[in-house]
Amino acid sequence: MGFALYRKRKTLAVYGVFCVLLIISVGFFQCFRRLGALDEMTFDEIEDFQALGDGSSRTSAASTTVKPNLPECANISSDEVDAVQRLSNETEENILANFPSIGPGGSWKPTDCVPRNKIAIVIPFRDRHENLMTFLPVLISVLQRQNLDFRFVLAEQLGTEVFNKGRVMNAGFIAAEKLGVDCVFFHDVDMLPQRTDVPEPYNILAGGVLSLTIKDYKSLNGYSNSYWGWGGEDDDMGKRILTKGMKLIRPEKRHRFVMLNHTRRRPNEYNPTMIFKHLDKTPTEMLKDGLNQPMWRLVNVMDKQLYHHVLVDVGEVPFEWTQRLNQYKRKKRRG
């Protein structure tokens, strides 16, 4: 699990890279540095989330127009952001009560300054409601305190079949683009910030949290549609980034994440044989396997109170994957 960003090899002056570095390295990273209380307690010991409040000069992005001739929002350093020390599995009602200015679709922007960027946080999702209720108040607090124009896009896979995270995230990206954002953050729902020493991230893996501009996500052709079950799509994205001559930028050690407790993945959803088979083909297949080949169907798109909800039908699992998954499951049993 890495927190992966990227930049072009030769120049940092292009708009897209500025967008990523501004929000993350100046804002996201530094705010997360202050969340040190998380590594001093277990999640079984975490108490109820305390209301953080969102300020009288804040409002939802959907409900109010920013006044003209306002100054550009300042960069907010970590020293100016209070630590979020208490988390819990909240309810939607409590979160909305604690953050009353959140607008439909989980949207918000400041009214006392002009945000530097308009972002969407795309959350690939299925069966993690408890994690979601822990995740949202933390992210809302951090993003509001950085004066960002943001909204959450919850991309949820329909049904109970094997998960296809790549297809879900591609569908979430399409929904985010229609909201007129500059940057998209793909953020796993079971990850929360942690400041202290953890192992170095993988060299190629671009998962956990990934930030891309609209233009550059399209140039990578989004995520692969071909990975079913647990693993592969994040490694594939890392290879796409490197194949396009971009470079992964990872955070300093103090900017790391802790994984929330969640239901264990089913053993038949891990298929290393098929994963490595597809990873070998990434450089040659990426231009025809991804965003430009929509192998999913949007079942429903609507604004809910805390997020823009996108329900996605990812289709049937190919026979080759089903066969390999069953073979791997039998092998593990014999193990």
Defining key terms:
12 strands, 8-stranded mixed β-sheet, 335 residues, disordered N terminus, two-stranded antiparallel sheet, Spore Coat Polysaccharide Biosynthesis Protein SpsA, Chain A
Describe this structure in words.
The longest helix is centred in the N-terminal third of the chain and has 19 residues, at 15-33. The protein has a single domain (3-59, 78-334), classed as Spore Coat Polysaccharide Biosynthesis Protein SpsA, Chain A. The strands form three sheets. An eight-stranded mixed β-sheet has the order 9-1-8-6-4-5-12-11, sandwiched between helices. Strands 2-3 form a two-stranded antiparallel ribbon. The chain has a two-stranded antiparallel sheet with strand order 7-10. α3 links the parallel β4 and β5 (149-157). Helices cover 30% and strands 19% of the residues. The protein has nine helices and twelve strands. The protein is of the alpha/beta class. The chain is globular. The model is unreliable at 1-59, 78-83 and 195-206 (pLDDT under 50). It starts with a strand and ends with a helix. It comes from Steinernema hermaphroditum. InterPro entries: Galactosyl_T, Galactosyl_T_C, Galactosyl_T_N, Nucleotide-diphossugar_trans. This is Beta-1,4-N-acetylgalactosaminyltransferase. It is a single-pass type II membrane protein. One of its GO terms (cellular component) is membrane.
